[in-house]
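Box 3.1 A note on notation
Throughout this textbook, protein chains are presented in two layers. The first layer is the amino acid sequence; the second is a C-alpha coordinate string describing backbone geometry. Keep the layers aligned when reading.
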Amino acid sequence: SYPAITSEDLLSIEVKTPPLKEQQAIGWFLDKKCDSIDGFIEKKLRLIELLQEEKTALINHAVTKGIDAGAPMKPSNAEWLGDIPAHWEVVRLKRVTSLITNGYVGPTRDILKPEGVRYIQSLHIKGGTIKFHTPYYVSADWSSQHSRSILKEHDILVVQTGAVGSVGIVSKDFEGCNCHALIILRINNERAVPSYVFNVLQSNYGFHVLKSIETGALHPHLNSTIICDIELPLPTIDEQIEIANLITLNTMRIEAAIGRIEKEIELLEEYKQALISEVVTGKVKVEEPVEEPEAVL
Protein backbone atom coordinates (compact mmCIF):
# COMPACT_ATOMS: atom_id res chain seq x y z
CA SER A 1 0.00 0.00 0.00
CA TYR A 2 1.06 3.61 -0.45
CA PRO A 3 -0.24 7.01 0.69
CA ALA A 4 -3.01 8.33 -1.54
CA ILE A 5 -5.53 11.13 -1.66
CA THR A 6 -9.09 10.62 -2.86
CA SER A 7 -11.44 13.01 -4.66
CA GLU A 8 -13.47 13.20 -1.44
CA ASP A 9 -10.35 14.34 0.42
CA LEU A 10 -9.78 17.06 -2.15
CA LEU A 11 -13.38 18.25 -1.99
CA SER A 12 -13.21 18.48 1.81
CA ILE A 13 -10.26 20.90 1.79
CA GLU A 14 -11.24 24.40 2.89
CA VAL A 15 -10.06 27.16 0.58
CA LYS A 16 -10.30 30.82 1.49
CA THR A 17 -11.43 32.90 -1.46
CA PRO A 18 -11.68 36.66 -1.89
CA PRO A 19 -14.77 38.31 -3.37
CA LEU A 20 -15.46 37.51 -7.03
CA LYS A 21 -14.45 40.97 -8.24
CA GLU A 22 -11.10 40.64 -6.47
CA GLN A 23 -10.62 37.14 -7.94
CA GLN A 24 -11.16 38.62 -11.40
CA ALA A 25 -8.63 41.35 -10.70
CA ILE A 26 -6.09 38.78 -9.47
CA GLY A 27 -6.64 36.61 -12.54
CA TRP A 28 -6.22 39.59 -14.88
CA PHE A 29 -3.09 40.75 -13.07
CA LEU A 30 -1.42 37.32 -13.01
CA ASP A 31 -2.29 36.59 -16.63
CA LYS A 32 -0.68 39.85 -17.69
CA LYS A 33 2.43 39.40 -15.52
CA CYS A 34 2.91 35.70 -16.33
CA ASP A 35 2.51 36.32 -20.06
CA SER A 36 5.22 38.98 -19.82
CA ILE A 37 7.56 36.68 -17.87
CA ASP A 38 6.89 33.76 -20.24
CA GLY A 39 7.72 36.05 -23.16
CA PHE A 40 11.09 36.88 -21.62
CA ILE A 41 11.77 33.18 -21.00
CA GLU A 42 10.83 32.27 -24.57
CA LYS A 43 13.27 34.84 -25.95
CA LYS A 44 16.04 33.51 -23.70
CA LEU A 45 15.34 29.92 -24.77
CA ARG A 46 15.59 31.02 -28.38
CA LEU A 47 18.93 32.66 -27.59
CA ILE A 48 20.15 29.34 -26.16
CA GLU A 49 19.08 27.61 -29.39
CA LEU A 50 21.07 30.13 -31.43
CA LEU A 51 24.15 29.60 -29.24
CA GLN A 52 23.83 25.82 -29.62
CA GLU A 53 23.58 26.28 -33.37
CA GLU A 54 26.71 28.46 -33.28
CA LYS A 55 28.56 25.73 -31.35
CA THR A 56 27.45 23.03 -33.78
CA ALA A 57 28.41 25.11 -36.82
CA LEU A 58 31.81 25.87 -35.30
CA ILE A 59 32.57 22.17 -34.70
CA ASN A 60 31.25 21.10 -38.11
CA HIS A 61 33.35 23.62 -40.00
CA ALA A 62 36.53 23.13 -37.97
CA VAL A 63 36.66 19.33 -38.33
CA THR A 64 35.66 19.20 -42.00
CA LYS A 65 37.15 22.40 -43.52
CA GLY A 66 39.90 23.30 -41.06
CA ILE A 67 40.72 26.78 -39.81
CA ASP A 68 42.69 28.09 -42.78
CA ALA A 69 40.09 29.78 -44.97
CA GLY A 70 42.58 29.98 -47.85
CA ALA A 71 43.54 26.31 -47.91
CA PRO A 72 42.99 24.57 -51.27
CA MET A 73 40.29 21.88 -51.13
CA LYS A 74 39.79 18.42 -52.64
CA PRO A 75 36.86 15.97 -52.77
CA SER A 76 36.87 13.63 -49.79
CA ASN A 77 34.89 10.92 -51.59
CA ALA A 78 33.22 10.22 -48.25
CA GLU A 79 29.47 10.52 -47.86
CA TRP A 80 28.32 13.55 -45.80
CA LEU A 81 31.85 14.94 -45.70
CA GLY A 82 32.18 16.91 -48.94
CA ASP A 83 35.39 18.73 -49.78
CA ILE A 84 38.26 18.79 -47.28
CA PRO A 85 41.61 20.62 -47.27
CA ALA A 86 43.88 19.15 -49.93
CA HIS A 87 46.61 18.16 -47.47
CA TRP A 88 44.23 16.18 -45.21
CA GLU A 89 43.78 12.41 -45.29
CA VAL A 90 40.62 10.36 -44.97
CA VAL A 91 41.40 7.32 -42.79
CA ARG A 92 39.48 4.56 -41.10
CA LEU A 93 38.96 4.84 -37.35
CA LYS A 94 40.93 1.66 -36.67
CA ARG A 95 44.05 3.35 -38.07
CA VAL A 96 44.08 5.95 -35.28
CA THR A 97 43.10 3.75 -32.33
CA SER A 98 45.07 1.44 -30.08
CA LEU A 99 41.91 -0.13 -28.64
CA ILE A 100 38.28 -0.49 -29.69
CA THR A 101 36.25 -2.51 -27.24
CA ASN A 102 32.90 -2.74 -25.48
CA GLY A 103 31.87 -2.01 -21.96
CA TYR A 104 30.28 -4.91 -20.13
CA VAL A 105 27.11 -6.11 -21.85
CA GLY A 106 24.91 -8.25 -19.65
CA PRO A 107 22.40 -8.12 -16.78
CA THR A 108 23.39 -5.71 -14.02
CA ARG A 109 20.99 -6.84 -11.31
CA ASP A 110 23.58 -8.97 -9.51
CA ILE A 111 26.66 -6.77 -10.04
CA LEU A 112 25.49 -3.35 -8.84
CA LYS A 113 26.58 -2.29 -5.35
CA PRO A 114 25.66 0.64 -3.07
CA GLU A 115 29.24 1.90 -3.35
CA GLY A 116 32.52 1.00 -5.01
CA VAL A 117 33.82 1.66 -8.53
CA ARG A 118 31.67 4.08 -10.50
CA TYR A 119 29.85 2.31 -13.33
CA ILE A 120 29.25 4.57 -16.33
CA GLN A 121 26.22 3.93 -18.53
CA SER A 122 24.65 5.59 -21.56
CA LEU A 123 22.43 7.78 -19.36
CA HIS A 124 25.59 9.45 -18.02
CA ILE A 125 26.73 10.65 -21.47
CA LYS A 126 25.32 14.16 -21.80
CA GLY A 127 26.53 17.01 -23.98
CA GLY A 128 29.83 15.34 -24.76
CA THR A 129 30.77 14.80 -21.11
CA ILE A 130 30.11 12.31 -18.32
CA LYS A 131 27.52 13.50 -15.80
CA PHE A 132 27.31 11.02 -12.92
CA HIS A 133 23.93 12.31 -11.73
CA THR A 134 22.44 8.83 -11.23
CA PRO A 135 25.05 6.82 -9.32
CA TYR A 136 25.76 3.19 -10.13
CA TYR A 137 28.63 1.20 -8.63
CA VAL A 138 30.30 -2.19 -8.99
CA SER A 139 32.78 -3.84 -6.67
CA ALA A 140 36.51 -3.37 -7.16
CA ASP A 141 36.90 -7.14 -7.59
CA TRP A 142 34.29 -7.26 -10.36
CA SER A 143 35.88 -4.28 -12.10
CA SER A 144 39.32 -5.94 -11.94
CA GLN A 145 37.86 -9.08 -13.51
CA HIS A 146 36.54 -6.90 -16.36
CA SER A 147 39.68 -4.79 -16.75
CA ARG A 148 39.29 -4.36 -20.51
CA SER A 149 36.41 -1.92 -19.90
CA ILE A 150 38.19 0.13 -17.20
CA LEU A 151 38.35 3.69 -18.50
CA LYS A 152 41.43 5.82 -19.01
CA GLU A 153 41.63 9.60 -19.36
CA HIS A 154 40.93 10.73 -22.95
CA ASP A 155 39.06 7.54 -23.87
CA ILE A 156 36.14 8.32 -26.19
CA LEU A 157 32.83 6.69 -25.27
CA VAL A 158 30.16 6.02 -27.90
CA VAL A 159 26.65 5.10 -26.79
CA GLN A 160 25.95 1.65 -28.19
CA THR A 161 22.22 1.28 -27.51
CA GLY A 162 19.46 3.78 -26.81
CA ALA A 163 20.71 7.25 -27.80
CA VAL A 164 22.90 5.64 -30.45
CA GLY A 165 25.79 7.80 -31.57
CA SER A 166 25.99 10.09 -28.54
CA VAL A 167 29.63 10.52 -27.59
CA GLY A 168 31.60 11.62 -24.55
CA ILE A 169 35.23 11.91 -23.58
CA VAL A 170 36.68 10.66 -20.30
CA SER A 171 38.12 13.37 -18.08
CA LYS A 172 40.72 12.78 -15.36
CA ASP A 173 37.89 12.64 -12.79
CA PHE A 174 36.45 9.48 -14.35
CA GLU A 175 39.67 7.58 -15.02
CA GLY A 176 39.43 4.12 -13.41
CA CYS A 177 35.67 3.81 -13.74
CA ASN A 178 34.13 0.81 -15.48
CA CYS A 179 31.28 1.01 -17.97
CA HIS A 180 28.23 -0.71 -19.41
CA ALA A 181 27.13 -1.02 -23.06
CA LEU A 182 29.45 1.71 -24.32
CA ILE A 183 32.01 1.44 -27.11
CA ILE A 184 35.43 2.51 -25.85
CA LEU A 185 37.82 4.15 -28.32
CA ARG A 186 41.39 4.58 -27.13
CA ILE A 187 43.30 6.81 -29.51
CA ASN A 188 46.87 6.17 -30.64
CA ASN A 189 48.50 9.50 -29.78
CA GLU A 190 51.08 9.10 -32.51
CA ARG A 191 48.32 9.15 -35.13
CA ALA A 192 45.62 11.39 -33.71
CA VAL A 193 44.58 13.71 -30.91
CA PRO A 194 41.71 12.29 -28.78
CA SER A 195 39.91 15.61 -28.45
CA TYR A 196 40.03 16.11 -32.23
CA VAL A 197 38.60 12.64 -32.96
CA PHE A 198 35.95 13.27 -30.30
CA ASN A 199 34.92 16.49 -32.05
CA VAL A 200 34.71 14.72 -35.41
CA LEU A 201 32.38 12.13 -33.88
CA GLN A 202 30.14 14.74 -32.25
CA SER A 203 29.90 16.81 -35.45
CA ASN A 204 27.01 16.46 -37.89
CA TYR A 205 29.27 14.35 -40.07
CA GLY A 206 30.07 12.01 -37.18
CA PHE A 207 26.42 11.76 -36.20
CA HIS A 208 25.35 10.76 -39.73
CA VAL A 209 28.18 8.25 -40.07
CA LEU A 210 27.33 6.57 -36.76
CA LYS A 211 23.61 6.50 -37.54
CA SER A 212 24.37 4.94 -40.92
CA ILE A 213 25.98 1.87 -39.33
CA GLU A 214 23.43 1.22 -36.58
CA THR A 215 21.70 -2.13 -36.80
CA GLY A 216 18.43 -3.49 -35.44
CA ALA A 217 15.06 -2.01 -36.35
CA LEU A 218 13.35 -2.47 -32.97
CA HIS A 219 16.41 -1.93 -30.79
CA PRO A 220 19.01 0.08 -32.73
CA HIS A 221 22.59 -0.44 -31.61
CA LEU A 222 26.17 -0.04 -32.78
CA ASN A 223 28.61 -2.86 -33.29
CA SER A 224 32.23 -2.23 -32.31
CA THR A 225 33.45 -4.47 -35.14
CA ILE A 226 31.76 -2.17 -37.67
CA ILE A 227 32.55 1.21 -36.11
CA CYS A 228 36.26 0.58 -36.64
CA ASP A 229 35.78 1.10 -40.38
CA ILE A 230 34.12 4.53 -40.32
CA GLU A 231 36.12 7.22 -42.10
CA LEU A 232 37.60 10.30 -40.43
CA PRO A 233 39.00 13.49 -41.94
CA LEU A 234 42.54 13.71 -40.59
CA PRO A 235 44.91 16.70 -40.71
CA THR A 236 48.41 16.70 -39.27
CA ILE A 237 48.85 16.27 -35.51
CA ASP A 238 49.76 19.94 -35.08
CA GLU A 239 46.63 21.01 -36.95
CA GLN A 240 44.48 18.60 -34.95
CA ILE A 241 45.77 20.22 -31.75
CA GLU A 242 45.09 23.68 -33.14
CA ILE A 243 41.55 22.73 -34.19
CA ALA A 244 40.80 21.02 -30.88
CA ASN A 245 42.07 24.03 -28.91
CA LEU A 246 39.99 26.42 -31.02
CA ILE A 247 36.86 24.34 -30.46
CA THR A 248 37.54 24.08 -26.72
CA LEU A 249 38.08 27.83 -26.34
CA ASN A 250 34.93 28.77 -28.23
CA THR A 251 32.85 26.00 -26.69
CA MET A 252 33.77 27.23 -23.21
CA ARG A 253 32.69 30.74 -24.21
CA ILE A 254 29.38 29.50 -25.61
CA GLU A 255 28.67 27.16 -22.69
CA ALA A 256 29.40 29.98 -20.23
CA ALA A 257 26.91 32.20 -22.06
CA ILE A 258 24.32 29.41 -22.05
CA GLY A 259 24.90 28.86 -18.34
CA ARG A 260 24.27 32.53 -17.60
CA ILE A 261 21.05 32.50 -19.63
CA GLU A 262 19.87 29.30 -17.94
CA LYS A 263 20.44 30.97 -14.56
CA GLU A 264 18.40 33.97 -15.71
CA ILE A 265 15.59 31.64 -16.78
CA GLU A 266 15.72 29.90 -13.41
CA LEU A 267 15.43 33.25 -11.62
CA LEU A 268 12.51 34.28 -13.82
CA GLU A 269 10.71 31.00 -13.07
CA GLU A 270 11.32 31.50 -9.34
CA TYR A 271 10.06 35.08 -9.56
CA LYS A 272 6.93 33.91 -11.41
CA GLN A 273 6.13 31.27 -8.78
CA ALA A 274 6.82 33.69 -5.92
CA LEU A 275 4.62 36.33 -7.53
CA ILE A 276 1.74 33.88 -7.94
CA SER A 277 2.10 32.73 -4.33
CA GLU A 278 2.25 36.29 -2.96
CA VAL A 279 -0.78 37.42 -4.94
CA VAL A 280 -3.10 34.46 -4.33
CA THR A 281 -2.34 34.50 -0.59
CA GLY A 282 -3.10 38.18 -0.35
CA LYS A 283 0.41 39.25 0.62
CA VAL A 284 0.51 41.49 -2.44
CA LYS A 285 -2.57 43.62 -2.97
CA VAL A 286 -3.78 43.77 -6.57
CA GLU A 287 -5.38 46.94 -7.81
CA GLU A 288 -8.49 46.45 -9.88
CA PRO A 289 -7.86 47.08 -13.59
CA VAL A 290 -9.04 50.39 -15.01
CA GLU A 291 -10.73 48.50 -17.86
CA GLU A 292 -12.97 45.50 -17.31
CA PRO A 293 -10.76 42.43 -17.77
CA GLU A 294 -11.70 40.41 -20.84
CA ALA A 295 -12.82 36.78 -20.68
CA VAL A 296 -12.66 36.64 -16.90
CA LEU A 297 -16.00 35.19 -15.95
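The CA atoms of residues 128 and 168 lie 4 Å apart. The two ends are 42 Å apart (CA to CA).
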